[in-house]
Amino acid sequence: MIEKTTAGNDGYTKPLPTVTLEGAPFWESTRRSELATQHCESCDRQQFPPRLICMHCGGRHLGWKKVSGRGRIYSFTIVYRPPEPTFQPEVPYVVAVIDLEEGGRMMTNIVGCAVTDVCVDMPVTAVFEQVTSSVTLVKFRPTNPIAR
Asked: What pTM does this model have?
């Protein structure tokens, strides 16, 4: 879920995530520049996004574990017409779905390379962008530098 911000959020004017009860540990981990996903104690699998029950076994004993921050691009799109004017200065940019190495998929932006260099199955690594004093966003960059 996304909320719109005002200049009262440390001057950041783009939409910010709304922190839910089940997602709070994720946002706490990003503030430490770490990536964490839900872990099911019943089937020993990771899941993302967070849910009240395990998507694999239906278990209700869920905790959180730090993960590597590595993954591969499952799917992506290049945005030329942003959903709102505050994103216009970044056009074009990449929105991607990442298959996390430990399990789960995360929607994010790809940074650190030209939009034309992005491809499905590209190995990526998490990077963290502190946008306000309380919110740090997760983005991904190519794991291997792209030679030009």
From this structure: 0.88
Contact in structure between 78 and 92 (CB atoms under 8 Å): yes
Structure tokens at 32: 């430490």
Distance (Å, whole) CA 59 – CA 128: 31
At a CB cut-off of 8 Å and minimum separation 6, what does 135 contact?
9, 12, 16, 17, 27, 30, 31
The total of structural domains in the chain comes to 1
- Give the CATH number of the domain where residue 60 resides: 2.40.50.840
Instruction: Give the β-pairing of 70-79 and 93-100.
Output: antiparallel
Residue pLDDT tens, the chain, 148 long? 333 333 445 788 899 998 899 899 999 999 999 999 999 999 999 999 999 999 999 999 999 999 999 999 999 999 999 999 999 999 999 999 999 999 999 999 999 999 999 999 999 999 999 999 989 999 999 998 775 5
**Which residue range forms the structural domain that includes residue 66?**
19-142
